[in-house]
Specification:
By secondary structure, the chain is an alpha/beta fold. The protein has 15 helices and 16 strands. The strands form four sheets. Strands 6-5-4-14-13-12-11-10 form an eight-stranded parallel beta sheet. The radius of gyration is 20 Å and the shape is globular. The chain starts with a strand and ends with a helix. Bound molecules: zinc ion. Residues 298-299, 302, 304, 306-307, 333, 336 line the site of zinc ion (ZN).
């Protein structure tokens, strides 16, 4: 595992993360494969649209099919037939989003959303589960707070103290066992409070994590100041991953500008399944009646398989009739759009045209309100 920075301009940079399963050229958008599958897409389609890496979720895989089975299969990449680098998140966010979660000093007690059985998650259990899943990059088990936007300073500070204590336990568990070629990211928290974000970044900067996940930020534009604070403190030579955010193009620009190297988000495929499709002129909903006789591609300037071969009227027809092909074609387009946008952002840093691209792209995208 290795990370090398190629070009740096202020906080933004281009680089290469080397993993045993190949390289990730950054900035990059990591494709969500929550349950060891990218929704509606084969891994061949993911690779063709430019997806370099896939992120799976430890909580979901722990419940189904179980991490022992994935270990037996030879690890996550082997299990899902993907040749590239993989990430797992810790499961902390999904568990904290469940009803009736109890947080103890040791970890959390929760009920499975599948069969209601009571389960326990601790930093050590998360590390062991991630070791068995065998992705290239693991996340420390944390206590995300602020995802509901309601946590006050005292509550956020208390959660941060727990996150830090658990991070030390994750580090110990990770170093204490055989984790050949697997890297651990610490997850910086602190909610919406600059003082706590600074404390958390100071704490993590001093520890030997390979890289950092940035947690509980769901709107990069609003949180631009917080991203700046954290990335000014975190060691520049280590990679940073913004967890679970990237639904809006503006967030990708603001994230990269403020030091983010990789993103992941379920939004492109989730929105695709609802018929909400990205175009350079804003998002459209393909189910709208006005596309009934529209024989243009979703986006005339898009080079994805869907836009090269199909038109809006056909896509609308697939959604109207509930044909599964509609989900695949829409997902190909949306994932391509976001992955390629981050690729364009990467090239713009190399060519010193980042700010021109940011201005022209965002003006056009947000200028027209489409339905
Ligand atoms: Zn397209």
């Amino acid at each position: 595992m290795d990370f090398a920075i190629e070009k740096q301009n202020g906080l933004m940079r281009t680089g290469v993360i080397k993993t045993p399963h190949g390289v990730i050229e950054t900035p990059a958008f990591v494709v969500a494969g929550t349950r060891a599958a990218v929704k509606a897409l084969t891994v061949a389609e993911v690779a063709t649209l430019g997806g370099q890496a896939i992120l799976a979720n430890t909580y979901h895989l722990l419940l189904q099919p179980g991490v022992d089975l994935i270990e037996k299969a030879g690890g996550l990449a082997q299990f899902m037939g993907f040749l590239g680098p993989t990430f797992t998140d810790s499961g902390g966010f999904q568990i904290m989003s469940l009803p009736k979660v109890r947080v103890t000093g040791e970890g959390v007690i929760f009920r499975s959303h599948i069969d209601g059985r009571e389960l326990r998650m601790t930093p050590e259990i998360s590390m062991e589960a991630q070791r068995k899943i065998g992705a290239d990059i693991h996340m420390a088990f944390d206590l995300p707070v602020g995802y509901d936007g309601e946590a006050d300073f005292a509550k956020t500070k208390h959660a941060l103290t727990t996150t830090h204590a658990w991070a030390l336990r994750c580090l110990e568990a990770h170093q204490g066992k055989s984790f050949a070629g697997q890297a651990l990211y610490g997850v910086v928290q602190g909610g919406k409070f600059a003082e706590l974000r600074k404390q958390s970044a100071d704490f993590f900067a001093a520890l030997p994590f390979f890289g950092y996940g940035i947690g509980s930020i769901y709107n990069a534009k609003e949180a631009e100041g917080l991203l700046k604070i954290m990335h000014q403190i975190l060691p520049a030579e280590r990679p940073r991953h913004l967890l679970g955010m990237g639904a809006e193009p503006v967030d990708l620009f603001v994230g990269v500008e403020n030091g983010v190297d990789t993103f992941d988000c379920v939004a492109p495929t989730r929105q695709a399944r609802n018929g909400a499709l990205y175009t350079l002129d804003g998002r459209i909903n393909i189910k709208n009646a006005k596309y009934r006789e529209d024989f243009a591609p979703i986006d005339a300037e898009c080079n994805c398989y869907c836009c090269k071969n199909y038109n809006r009227a056909y896509l609308r027809h697939l959604f109207q009739t509930g044909e599964l092909l509609g989900l695949t074609l829409a997902s190909i387009h949306n994932e391509y759009f976001v992955v390629q946008l981050v690729q364009k952002i990467r090239e713009s840093i190399q060519n010193h045209t980042f700010f021109e691209l940011k201005t022209s792209f965002l003006q056009r995208y947000y200028d027209k309100i489409s339905s």
